[in-house]
Design brief:
Blueprint lengths: L6 H16 L6 H27 L7 H30 L6 H26 L6 H16 L7 H17 L4 H25 L1
Helix pairs in contact: 2-3, 2-7, 4-5, 5-6, 5-7, 6-7
Amino acid sequence: MMQFDDPRKDLIEIRSMMEQSSKFLSLSGLAGVSAGTVALAGAGAAYWQLNQQESAPGNADLAPFFLTDATLVLALAISLAIFFTTRMAKKKGLPIWSGTTRYLLASLLVPLGVGGLFCLIAWHHGLVMLIAPATLIFYGLALLNSTKYTLREVQYLAAAQILLGLLAFLFLDAWLIFWAGGFGILHIVYGVIMYAKYEK
């Protein structure tokens, strides 16, 4: 007797193949956890430095410290994200560098580049308090812009980052709390959820 393939199974396989060709599916949850942990460490260092200045007031310029702190956090977060994402891609047998990867990076880099220029201009004019909220908002916009090339869950992380950025603008005195919440806690929560859903 002739047997027919299950059309639902065929549709699922076709959809999976289309997603692999059009979306970057190697984002690791561990990359989010590691980035969030590094961000919290950087926020902790910034908080300690601010407390030191309050306990011994002076004319010390904190700009070099904050610039160094932010650079180290960014470099470590990117390095760890590349490591965990590359490892996940190898496990899944997916290409690391493809047309989809290029589109994903382009969709991220445009908003991030504009945001970086905005922060430099704000720094130039002495509007340092605007930098932390701006980084959250532009990062959220970059994530939102990239959702068509990666997992749909990224849009929720993007919306939360933008919301925290707007709140940080509203409550400028609490900028460090919102920054730590966005780049630290949100990344860890997102990473744990993604790891449990796609990798565990």
